[in-house]
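Support request from a user on the community tier.

User writes: "When I paste my structure tokens into the form, the page sometimes reloads and wipes my input. The last time it worked, I copied everything first. Here is what I submitted, just in case something in the input itself triggers the reload:"
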């Protein structure tokens, strides 16, 4: 490590690190030699990338397939209004290089998949998971275990967040628990909403992303005790914290006593998302927003029902009758059985669930799901409406 040298400018930049007795120049050398792969540049990835680059991590890889949208700016402080429509990895690279010209940024403007994961991740010493969906979390975990590199994990939802270090190998050759030890099975599809569906307070990813960056730095330098074997929980609403112990599961299919997973799998299918939606919903009749517009403009009677929550209705609505999903059965007598009824929500998922319930339990045959929901309506019919 003594062959890692610093310029005068770097020594001045990192001087507040260098004068920490437990950290000093050896810690900074380890950071400069390190290669960290960050999966996702969203709420968690934004502060994570900023602090890793500011700290002097020598090589940072960034994986993301998305572009910057208006709704990102409430929490993804790496981006500005001028970045809307740009690939996130492109905007992130530009901002980080402006922050620290002494490090190397490698971008992957692609989805992280079973097909490309090994090729991308094999070039890195640490993986930092800033994703927001279960298939990718299991994929990142399995790549981490199979490549024998640590996975610094965080997740956020509304006012709550969690962070830990998975698959960490200590100085004695012991490897800590991984994501499958904590969550052996994914939740049923649709049970846990994403941040896009459930929301997140803007400052929360900044807090958790910073904690995640702190754990990455500790993993690289060996300074302090990282969160391997412990799950840190943070509640921003009540400002409460808890730390739970994570035990290794002997039945872990990846690295337990009798491993059954030796290569990457189909994670969409594993998480119950691999079923063709049209086949899964074959009894739910769907229409697109163009068809709904023509129906509403026609002479035929149409009932439009909005099954979102009142606070969503207040953000934007298309004059549907508000009957929240959980209250539908209490308002059965308000749903017509004589003419077409179009049920809609934000994207089409909850409304399809409502229709399945009503058809199964009450025998409705006149219900239509608005595919794409109010998001599609705002995108294709009335662009003056906000998308949330």
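"...and here is what came back when it finally went through:"
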């Amino acid at each position: 490590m003594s062959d890692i040298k610093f310029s005068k400018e770097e020594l001045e930049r990192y001087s507040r690190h260098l004068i920490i007795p437990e950290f000093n120049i050896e810690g900074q050398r380890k950071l400069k030699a390190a290669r960290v792969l960050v999966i996702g540049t969203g709420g968690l990835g934004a502060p994570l990338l900023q602090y890793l680059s500011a700290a002097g991590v020598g090589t940072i890889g960034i994986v993301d397939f998305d572009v910057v949208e208006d709704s990102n700016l409430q929490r993804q402080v790496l981006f500005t209004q001028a970045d809307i429509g740009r690939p996130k990895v492109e905007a992130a690279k530009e901002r980080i290089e402006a922050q620290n010209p002494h490090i190397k940024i490698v971008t992957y403007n692609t989805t992280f998949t079973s097909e490309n994961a090994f090729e991308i991740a094999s070039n890195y010493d640490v993986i930092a998971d800033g994703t927001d969906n279960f298939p990718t979390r299991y994929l990142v975990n399995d790549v981490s275990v199979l490549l024998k590199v640590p996975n610094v994990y965080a997740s956020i939802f509304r006012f709550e967040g969690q962070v830990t270090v998975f698959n960490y190998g200590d100085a004695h050759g012991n490897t800590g628990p991984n994501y499958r030890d904590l969550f052996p099975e994914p939740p049923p599809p649709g049970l846990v909403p994403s941040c896009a569906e459930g929301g997140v307070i803007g400052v929360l990813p900044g807090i958790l992303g910073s904690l995640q960056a702190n754990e990455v730095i500790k993993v690289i330098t060996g300074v302090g005790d990282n969160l391997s074997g412990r799950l840190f929980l943070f509640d921003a609403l009540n400002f409460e914290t808890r730390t739970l112990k994570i035990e290794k599961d002997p039945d872990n299919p990846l690295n337990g006593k009798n491993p059954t997973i030796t290569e990457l799998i189909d994670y969409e299918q594993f998480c119950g998302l691999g079923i063709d939606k049209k086949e899964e919903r074959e009894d739910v009749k769907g229409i697109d927003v163009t068809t709904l517009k023509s129906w509403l403009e026609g002479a035929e009677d149409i009932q439009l029902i909005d099954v979102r929550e009142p606070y969503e209705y207040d953000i934007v609505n298309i004059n549907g009758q508000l009957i929240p999903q959980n209250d539908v059965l209490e308002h059965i007598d308000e749903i017509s059985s004589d003419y077409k009824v179009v049920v809609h929500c934000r994207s089409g998922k909850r409304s399809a669930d409502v229709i399945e319930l009503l058809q199964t339990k009450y025998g409705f045959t006149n219900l239509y799901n608005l595919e794409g929901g109010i998001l599609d309506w705002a995108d294709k019919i009335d662009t003056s409406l906000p998308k949330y």
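Agent notes: The reload is a front-end session timeout and is unrelated to the input. Residues 275-280 have pLDDT under 50 and may be disordered. The domain at 34-270 is CATH 3.40.50.720 (Rossmann fold). Escalated to web team.
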